[in-house]
Amino acid sequence: MTTPIGSLAPTHWYNLAADFPEPVPPPLHPGTREPLRPEDLEHLFPRELINQELSTERFIEIPQAVREVYAKWRPSPLIRADRLERALGTRGRIFYKYEGVSPAGSHKPNTAVAQAWYNAQEGTTRLTTETGAGQWGASLALACSLFGMSCEVWQVRSSYESKPYRRYQMEVYGSTCHSSPSDLTRAGRDVLARDPQTTGSLGMAISEAVEVAAASDDVHYALGSVLNHVMLHQTVIGLEAVAQLRQAGVDQPDVVFGCAGGGSNLAGLSFPFIGRNLTEGASSRVVACEPAACPTITQGEYRYDVGDVAGTTPMMKMYTLGADFVPPAIHAGGLRYHGMAPMVSHAVHLGLMDGVAVSQEDAFAAGLLFARSEGIVPAPESTHAVAAAVEYAREARQGEVILIGLSGNGVLDLPAYEAYL
Ligand SMILES: Cc1ncc(COP(=O)(O)O)c(C=O)c1O
């Protein structure tokens, strides 16, 4: 490797595509079913992000302007959960990598800032996107405000109605937020005609945002998860964690838990560790923690599927519950996606990662335990990783190192906790 994995201020993102024992199956054009060509994506994304999407280069330099923004909150803290350890009576050592310190409250700005910057460099003036719980929408709104772009967000109806604070956050950053499905797009109108009472889904909101971006030259689309370039940007989390664990005298975690919606925080934390498993003989186990209500990895099929309801996105080889699957309106809105990132799916398929499904009840119970021992109220999404880690920790061997990806804080999600108090 030219750049070692593990740094407190990474200068490069790490691309696991370089080290997979088999290449990730390519995305296909939804019309021709032929492998996608870079030009097929040009109406939606800037060239540099398309290059990253298809790249198999091991390290990709983080632009200086992006590193300067990261430096406002990165490195994010790696914290020993000693009080949680005592509450559990575990023999293991638990650490968590806390992404809730970003201005938006989650890991999502790691890619939002990069995506907004590359778009701004190419002269794009407006970005469209979808959001579930609103963490991604708020993050892209923040990033667009930093680089002088406007931003239009379609938020899944169930979250739009139950989580107004994220919408206010987007508006504070100067963005516009619509409930999805909306009557502003053909995709939204089609769904509303079929099912006026729908709770919405990320697949529907993606169709709306893509439709609007595809219709204008100066508007691009940004996705908060799933795509390869998003996994890439998030690897700052794991690159820092490798260095921080070393500082704490730990060469490698025995097991890494991350929640998985589209897969980005999990990939960001775990890919550098999987890279070390593949190239340096390390042996960290990685567990993707998903909601039992949307069990993409544990119950989905591994096949080509589209990323949205209208079928306008490329086809990706991934674990999927089917693009028209509408998950129940669980509180962890960011985990309500029918598919899983192709890179995460590939890692699962190759046996480099496992999946576990967590019930909403167990997730919130773990969230409360975590809040009452460590003080941080985890985002409802993050509680899934906490729950799986807590269960594991109860049986851990002496000294075993457990690493949790705490992808965000839940201070704007407190109403979701109310039912579990
Ligand atoms: C705090 C938080 N964690 C996790 C997720 C799930 O997304 P991903 O699997 O891409 O990390 C979200 C999505 O909105 C989120 O807001």
From TrEMBL:
It catalyses: (1S,2R)-1-C-(indol-3-yl)glycerol 3-phosphate + L-serine = D-glyceraldehyde 3-phosphate + L-tryptophan + H2O. Residues 73-408 form the Tryptophan synthase beta chain-like PALP domain. The keyword Electron transport does not apply. It comes from the Bacteria. Pathway: Amino-acid biosynthesis; L-tryptophan biosynthesis; L-tryptophan from chorismate: step 5/5. Gene3D superfamilies: 3.40.50.1100. It holds the Pfam family PALP. Keywords: Amino-acid biosynthesis, Aromatic amino acid biosynthesis, Lyase, Pyridoxal phosphate, Tryptophan biosynthesis. The keyword Calcium does not apply. InterPro entries: Trp_synth_b-like, Trp_synth_b_CS, Trp_synth_beta/beta-like, TrpB-like_PALP, TrpB-like_PALP_sf. Its cofactor is pyridoxal 5'-phosphate. Its EC number is 4.2.1.20. The modification N6-(pyridoxal phosphate)lysine is found at residue 108. The beta subunit is responsible for the synthesis of L-tryptophan from indole and L-serine. Tetramer of two alpha and two beta chains. Belongs to the TrpB family. PANTHER family: TRYPTOPHAN SYNTHASE (PTHR48077:SF6), TRYPTOPHAN SYNTHASE-RELATED (PTHR48077). This is Tryptophan synthase beta chain. The gene is trpB.
